[in-house]
Amino acid sequence: MTVDDTGSGTGAHPAPDGEPGRTAGSVTDPAPAHVDANGTTDATTGTGGNGGNGVNGRSDTGAHVDLNERTDLNDRTDPSDRTDTDGRRDGQSWLDAEVADSGEDPLALRLEQLILGAERRYTPFQAARSAGVSMELASRFWRAMGFADIGQAKALTEADVLALRRLAGLVEAGLLSEAMAVQVARSTGQTTARLAEWQIDSFLEGLTEPPEPGMTRTEVTYPLIELLLPELEEFIVYVWRRQLAAATGRVVQAGDDEEMVDRRLAVGFADLVGFTRLTRRMEEEELGELVEAFETTAADLVAAHGGRLIKTLGDEVLYSADDAGVAAEIALRLIETMAHDETMPELRVGIAFGTVTTRMGDVFGTTVNLASRLTSIAPRDAVLVDGAFAEELVRTADAPASEAAAAEAAAAAEKEGEKPPAYRFALQPMWQRPVRGLGVVEPWLLARRDGEL
User: Fold this and answer.
1) What is the enclosing helix (H) or strand (E) of 351?
2) Any bridge partners for residue 425, and if so which?
3) How far apart (Å, rounded) are the C-alpha atoms in residues 27 and 21?
4) What is the per-residue pLDDT across 153-182, written as a single tens digit (0 to 9) for each?
5) Which of 61, 52, 68 is nearest to 11 (CA)?
6) Highest mean pLDDT range out of 7-16, 223-232, 233-242, 259-268?
7) How large is the C-alpha radius of gyration of the chain?
8) Does a cis peptide bond (omega within 30 degrees of 0) precede residue 106?
9) Nearest to residue 314, comparing CAs of 267, 271, 360?
10) Are the C-beta atoms of 324 and 266 separated by less than 8 Å?
């Protein structure tokens, strides 16, 4: 497509592929042209002459040029538009060009194209324009998802454009505020980044070790991912839908709107004792195996007994539960399980009960801070709880206020010919002590009642 040097070109209509060029206004199109739907031009290819084009290469009077029909600073055509002698796009030529230009490993580029399902064809500027969003908002979304700035490298695909368009569409429709859309991008990026790292570091490594005879791991990786990709994708979507259904159910059951965000929960921290010393004595591989075993055990126990694992921090896990009895059961199960594993260090747990603010799958507030402080002062292989948690256990009849109260309740039940209360837990008050940032607290030592398992 040729634009005259006056920068006019009002009313230009590109000819469809395979038809003769047409002239409209002062724009001549002697060859078949493929025009981008957004009709934008790149800043690197503004026309000369009197310069009717704006700073982004867009004609002030509306001349539209396809982003992918032009050349970039190196005077190369978009690799996605290269064709072979039969008029078809030559994927290998595209790959060779990308490798030559970027210096990247050819297998890495092939894997990227396989996983993303699309070729590189846009710079960030082009992707933002194609999606109909500002460059500033596109950059915010991109960084929120956890990706580094890439300047104006041609590294984005149609999938990236579609993702931008979808997020922006949710904002335009009023379903999400712009700030909330950025939070959605951030939470999704953080969660999936860890998932992807785990899959590559553990799952994929395990399947490709050792390599098949005569093949390197590199050669095994591509066909392996090609086979696993659709199955893993389906499974991830299934688990996400299950988790979304469970989370939605909890929100719907909340008493009021405030309770959806600021809820009363039991929050527990479980911490491996002496982990810092272990890091100096153990080999890296052994340390990694220990952390993985701890996290796996904790995650299984939390899920099995109805809690929610908030996050793991190597030697520490954070979990929550709607019910104090559930949180107490999880804590004691963790202590008991770790105590029977000779390879595991001792464990200590701190639990607090109260109002908790939930954001992006995490929990915040004084209750969380108190649980963390209780963990730091808990005896080895023991559970410390705050006064509010102890009161909640008493209220729900999961624990007596004291052994004297338990004896009185048992005597009263026997006198009435009724079954005595079946308390699951015992609470022992500890000495009051100051806790950094929270003042003086009175912790309680949590244990099982005799005979309770």
Assistant:
1) strand 347-359
2) 448
3) 11
4) 899 999 999 999 999 999 999 999 998 899
5) 61
6) 233-242
7) 31
8) no
9) 271
10) yes
Q: Do 395 and 344 meet the contact criterion of CB atoms below 8 Å apart?
A: no
The phi, psi pair for 268, rounded to 5°, reads -125, 140
Residue with tokens 């956890």: 146
Quickly tell me which residue has 């290819």 as its tokens: 45
Provide CB contacts within 8 A for 391, sequence distance 6+: 353
Backbone angles phi, psi at 141, to 5 degrees: -60, -45
Distance CA 266, CA 328 (A): 9
d(CA 178, CA 186) in angstroms, rounded, equals 12
CA distance 135 to 128: 6
Q: 3-class SS at 421?
A: coil
393 vs 421: CA distance, rounded Å? 13
Rounded CA separation 143/292 (Å): 29
Can you give the pLDDT at residue 262?
64
pTM (predicted TM-score): 0.60
99-122 per-position pLDDT tens digit: 555 567 787 888 888 888 888 999
Among candidate residues 319, 314, 318, 272, the one with its CA nearest the CA of residue 289: 314
Q: How confident is the model at residue 201 (pLDDT cuts 50, 70, 90)?
A: confident
In the chain, the amino acid numbered 398 is D
Look at residue 439 in the predicted model and tell me its pLDDT.
83
Q: How far apart are the first and last CA of the chain?
A: 80
H or E, element range at 448: strand 444-448
CA–CA dist 175, 172 (Å, integer): 8
d(CA 393, CA 374): 17
- Going by C-beta distance under 8 Å and a sequence separation of 6 or more, which residues neighbour residue 350? 268, 269, 271, 370, 371, 372, 373, 374, 375, 376, 377, 378, 383, 384, 385
DSSP string, 306-325: T-EEEEE-SSEEEEEESSHH
